[in-house]
Amino acid sequence: MEELSFGMYVTKLDRPWTETPFVFQGFVLKTEKQIDVLKKYCKHVFVDPEKEDLAEIAKANAEELAKIRGTTIYKEAASVEVELPRAQSAYTKTTVVVEELSRAVEVGNTIDSAHSQQAAAQITDSVVRNPDAMALLIKLQEKSGATLSRAAEVSVMMTIFGRFLQLPPERLEILGMLGLLQDVGKLKLPTELATQGPMNAAQVELYRTHVDHSVEILSNTPGLPPELPGLASLHHERFDGSGYPRGLRGGGIALFGLIAGIVDSFDTLTAPPPFGENMSPSNALNIIYKGRGKQFHPALVEQFIQCVGVFPVGSVVELNSGEVAVVIAQNLVRRLQPRIMVVKDARGNPVIPYKMLDLMKEPKVKPGEPYRIQRTLEYDTVKINPRELFL
């Protein structure tokens, strides 16, 4: 029943039609009220794909997109090579802010709202100029062995997604701050629980209290945007009502909460243990896609997959030559042909200096055979120090 959507043709119920308020035995779903009534009276229904109203589906999709997309047009103002040093500076300052707020919360002091806002503003400025630079940097920092707070990565990813959705810059800053601060309540949990995650039912309940801690900390911090504490309460809510702490569903979850839920889940799936499941980006996106209309807002899921791309920036890929490369820039025209940096040869030996390839220009492995990406690999397959690149 959770998979019902506008445009579907309901042809049969799991009970007699006369036991329901419906007048017609067979109809196209066009309103939320129809869906709510079906869920009230039936456990399951039957639909006929051949009678779907494609116009109604297109209309519903357009209406959903209009609700979640803004109108700000962003143009790439710098190449990855030019933007990466500025992204490095913004990232470094952000990690300092994360460390500062960690120490403040641990000793019971108020966090510095001004520093948090400055960090989000710098992330936003870099992402607006070129989203690929910051996306690449945070992945390379993770591989190089440097300490990477998930807060910084989630903040960057949420800002990049907001840019893709064409939200105005001031809203991107709110998203960036939300990514930085929504999990600050984890600092109030026992250290082992916060770093390793819950292992039993009792620990799950205790772990979930980090959301309330986050809301309390942010509510008591002067100078923050007034909407931030409320938004921080939403990143574990789910579209179908299965989330926590309040079990909100659908339209009861603000747009930024829906965005945060998708980004946080994707980051958890791809992050290395003990924080994540160390999946390849393609496998993680597949799980997110399967959750559309259930855990996640369906239109937002489709937009997120378009934003991240088939081969996300920073992802490690295996080529048809047997070489291993890192994606350094998206190609919005041809998603299957990004710019890449070859870091290992077919035998697994390091390639020094790194070999840069733009797959859209169809460089050849050998005469008549252009380079192609065969598959994505886990993020920790290679270790690269970003200072060896353009910095």
Distance between the termini: 52 Å
Rough outline:
globular
CATH homologous superfamily designation of the largest domain = Hypothetical protein af1432
The CATH class of the largest domain is identified as Mainly Alpha
Secondary structure tally: strands: 10
Structural class from helices and strands? alpha+beta
Round the mean pLDDT to the nearest integer and report it. Answer: 87
Number of helical segments? 14
CATH architecture of the largest domain: Orthogonal Bundle
CATH-derived topology of the largest domain: Hypothetical protein af1432
Oligomerization: single chain
* Count of discrete domains: 3
Nutshell version of this structure?
With 391 residues, this protein is an alpha+beta fold. It has 14 helices and 10 strands.
Fold topology:
Blueprint: E1 9-13, E2 27-28, H1 32-41, E3 45-47, H2 54-68, H3 80-106, H4 113-129, H5 131-143, H6 150-164, H7 169-181, H8 191-196, H9 201-208, H10 210-219, H11 228-232, H12 255-270, H13 281-290, H14 298-308, E4 316-319, E5 324-329, E6 339-344, E7 350-358, E8 364-366, E9 369-370, E10 373-377
Helix pairs in contact: 3-4, 3-5, 4-5, 4-6, 4-7, 5-6, 6-7, 6-12, 12-13
